[in-house]
Amino acid sequence: MWYLFVAAIVSAAPFHDILTTDNMDPSAREAAREVLACAVLSRDIPVREYAGSADLMDTLFDHPVLTADIVRGMGLGDFHVAENGARSYRVREGRSIEADFSEIYRVRGVRLYRISGQYYGSFFVHLSGKALLCARYQDMRDERVRVEVHASLCVDNRFYGFLVYLFPGLFKRLVDGQFSGYMDIAGRLSEALAADPERVYNRLLDQGVMDAREREQFTELFIMSRRRAR
Fold first, then answer.
1. Residue 27 DSSP SS3
2. pLDDT at 178 over 80
3. Per-residue pLDDT reduced to its tens digit, 181-214
4. Domain containing residue 81
């Protein structure tokens, strides 16, 4: 349909530098383009700056299962993540979102994910689709990190996709609100771990959200690495 062609051109722009790089795996490039070809909505989430570092962001992105458990243990969100293959995971957020996501490209300061899942919300009983999400982050002054996120979404049902195209303002507010909440969580998580990882660890122990392996991971990744850096 004609509106998909227009939307796809707009959606592809934030990902152009990644899709044209020589070191991207061809299958990953194809997976990304598949989403962009049917994308009906593209969002540039407002840039945020947090206390923290690009190294801390790397660690959080590298360990999504542990990251989700930390978020849940800190009372920041109801995320459950399980491994689903090499750099592939299944995530559930409360009763509203179930999705599979795979990291299809990574370089220093850039992560690209392909997501396929379902949304259960107040507007729709059941909405399924795909998304391409890119997170970019870099160190700033005063031990802060700058984070920006781009997302392009494809709705499986063409009727709903056409509604998104007809009423973009409504869906942009819905998507922006969702991602704004995620960015707030990321900021609070980054700032807590940057300030006092041992305090976070003790809180997680009280909540009982980490198993023995995760306790070792947390100690090595956030506490011992911080001590060695001093």
1. helix
2. yes
3. 999 999 999 999 999 999 999 999 999 999 999 9
4. 2-229
Q: How many angstroms separate the Cα of 130 from the Cα of each of 41, 45, 70?
A: 11, 18, 26
Report the DSSP pairing between strands 41-51 and 79-83.
unpaired
Report the alpha-carbon distance of residue 172 to residue 135 in Å, rounded.
19
- Report d(CA 18, CA 7) in Å as an integer: 19
Residue with tokens 């243990």: 73
Sign of the CA dihedral with 144 first, then 214, 107, and 186 last: negative
| φ, ψ for residue 170, nearest 5 deg | -60, -45
Number of domains in the chain: 1
Give me the CATH number covering residue 177.
3.30.530.20
* 165, 3 Cβ separation under 8 angstroms: yes
The predicted-structure confidence for 54-107, as pLDDT tens digits, reads as follows 999 999 999 999 999 999 999 999 999 999 988 899 999 988 889 999 999 999
Task: Note the pTM of the prediction, 2 decimals.
Answer: 0.87
DSSP string, 85-107: STTEEEEEETTTEEEEEEEEEEE
